[in-house]
Sequence to fold (199 residues):
Amino acid sequence: MTALLWTGALGSWLFVVTFLIDGATRPGYSPVRHPVSALALGPRGGIQTANFVVCGLAITTGALALAPTYVLLGVAVGVFGLALVASGVFRMDPMRGYPPGTPDGTPETTTRRHDLHDHAGAVVFLALPVAAAIAAFTLADTGWRWYSGVTAALLLAGFSAFGTAWENDDPRAGLVQRVVIGVGWLWLGLVFAHVALLG
Fold:
């Protein structure tokens, strides 16, 4: 079980490292404006697609190791991991100037694939704060309970802020999303590591 927990931790952290490096080196892509999901578009789109799927599966594997001791936490993290996989299977539509040559705006209509991506993203952004809230009540250590509770609150506020920024096509929407993802995925990886070290 310890190996599965470390797999979940590495999947959490690798996801962030991959999109940060890819986004910083992708021609025509603005990490400040564009969301992480947009990296699944264009000639190098396979990198982020694989990032969603591989890291989502790694996190889901880690969730299986959490479940015997922390049932509800394992379920919430498993849902989060599977939603990440779905986010990779169903890509968002080109929009807002990316990939290069795409009109700088939001299409009036979107494809079914894009809609499914949005639904998967909503599950991602809900399941992680739910997992953090569950951890705030189930982890044994008081420090971890406080850390998890604060993380849950930050994630809910941050995902709401990103949603507003995205709807308004705020030029800093991508930056807001990256900060929130950093907070959440770092916490998740540390929880996996904490439980692994306890074992």
Observations:
- Residues 2-25+39-99+112-198 form one domain.
